Amino acid sequence: MPKDDAEHVTTQLTAFTEDVMQQITLEVTAQLGEDTPVDTGWAQANWVPNIGSSHTGTVGTKESVTATAQEEGIAKVLATYKLPAIVFVSNNVSYIERLNAGHSDQAPVGFVQIGILKGIQAVEKRV
Predict the structure, then answer these.
(1) At 62, is the secondary structure helix, strand, or coil?
(2) Torsion sign across C-alpha atoms 89, 95, 99, 105
(3) Which of 24, 36, 54 is nearest to 116 (CA)?
(4) Which of 1, 40, 60, 115 could form a disulfide with 66 if both were Cys (CB 3.0 to 4.6 A apart)?
(5) pLDDT at 4
(6) Exposed (0-12), middle (13-18) or buried (19+): which is 60, by Cβ within 10 Å?
(7) What is the pLDDT along the chain (127 residues), one digit of tens a residue?
């Protein structure tokens, strides 16, 4: 295979993989937000994607919920994600582990793991 052909294939594969990673990030973030039990919406708004490391801290408060960091994280992933970076989707509210353990009747035990799997499966159906 000529060098130019190999470079073209590598460039196309890299672009495809980066696009799939972006899609997975969007789907997983959306699915986790959809599946998170809602009282005030604070836990739901704290699913924040970030490149290279987990988002630190929480966004807003129970009394003043904002999805700004979530929206900024999504925009950052869409605009700047490049291989071989790792994407994290994290939630740092103090009670997210209790919610995932079944503390709320609104979501099953392990809803986080289920949401990640559903997000990945949604992208697999498209690619």
Answers:
(1) coil
(2) negative
(3) 24
(4) 60
(5) 82
(6) middle
(7) 666 899 999 999 999 999 999 999 999 999 999 999 999 999 999 999 999 999 999 999 999 999 999 999 999 999 999 999 999 999 999 999 999 999 999 999 999 999 999 999 999 999 9
CB 75 within 8 A of CB 108: no
DSSP codes, 64-113:
S---HHHHHHHHHHHHH--TT--EEEE---TTHHHHHTT-STTS-TTHHH
Angle CA 49–55–121, to nearest 5: 30
Place of tokens 């590598």: 10
- Residues across the chain: 127
CA 119, CA 64: separation in Å to the nearest integer?
A: 28
pTM of structure: 0.93
